[in-house]
Amino acid sequence: xxxxxxxxxxxxENFSELSTMEKAPCFLKEGRIFHxxxxxxxxxxxxxxxxxxxxxxxxxxxTRTGSRFLQEQLFDRRAMxxxxxxxxxxxxxxxxxCQVVGLDCMDVRDSSTSxxxxxxxxxxxxxxxxxYVDLIIMRHPEGGFAERVAxxxxxxxxxxxxxxxxxxxxxxxxxxxxxxxxxxxxxxNGGGIDGKTVAFVGDLKRGRTVRSLAWLLTQYEGVxxxxxxxxxxxxxEDILQQLDAAGMSYEISFDFEKVIPQADAIYMTRIxxxxxxxxxxxxxxxxxxxxxxxxxxxxxETGVIMHPLPRRAEIDTAVDSxxxxxxxxxxxxxxxxxxxxxxxxxxxxxxxRDYYKEQEQ
Length: 361
Ligand code: CP
Prior knowledge:
Layout: H1 12-16, H2 20-23, E1 28-29, E2 32-33, H3 44-60, H4 64-73, E3 78-83, H5 89-100, E4 104-108, H6 122-132, E5 135-140, H7 145-154, E6 162-167, H8 173-186, E7 197-201, H9 208-217, E8 224-228, H10 237-246, E9 249-253, H11 256-259, E10 265-268, E11 304-306, H12 327-345, H13 349-360
The chain binds phosphoric acid mono(formamide)ester (CP).
Phosphoric acid mono(formamide)ester is lined by residues 87-91, 166, 175, 308-310.
């Protein structure tokens, strides 16, 4: 069987048996992104294209004429923001990205306000949304639900693309895209992402941003990852197997202070206790995995401190004013890379690049 068939050419039973790596090409259409669901569908060339497009969008948007040009790209399309889990950054940056490219947005931010409370299935609910819009951007607590929706909508007479804005404990591909864009910008005068060492710290077991970004880093040459966490919160074996298969070098550590001087980027994460049914992780002492002000002197001068946010105590607020703290830049970068992703899904990337080139001359 050809395992890389488009979603409208494969049954749900056959599709759901595929590994994430095998599913990833099914989300493309004629080599372009149609659905954006898993990190594993983004090759290095796609990542580089998206980052350079995000930079075009960011620079074009600096002028009123440029902003108007961007808004004309998708003024006749509508998007649905369906967020069945809480969100500040992802929701707002997608809403802002839609405004940048002229897409009108509707939203459901709480399933208790949709007809799901009357017993409608989540599938029927999303299918209803798809009748009104041209794009669905969704966050859902159930891992794999965005894939099910994408398969279902691909097999209707009016396929609508789906962007995964965070699903279960497994995937947060657009957060990983903004993290890559931030790393690329941080190291643009330092050889890029190739050869860099990235330390992931905190709750790596349930941190979907870590899982998505770790895989994207396999697309770069000579990157090394450190996974620094208490044993109970260490990274999953499944993602380590994917890193092994991709030939990426990594080490597991419990000693944060030993890793700090070796890292080019330190990616802090909070304890994800919203997944904790019995409050088990509240009993784990994670204080030795906090980035404190005194750690700044251990960090390379060229190093960066990242966090997908929201944070709790894992980064001292006294660190925020250090130029190596880039987590607020990540937030802003999220809007640009998400605008670039939306433009790519709708095939407007060429027009935006051409406009940018004309303005540069
Ligand atoms: N980083 C992130 O996903 O933040 P929100 O949960 O606020 O969207």
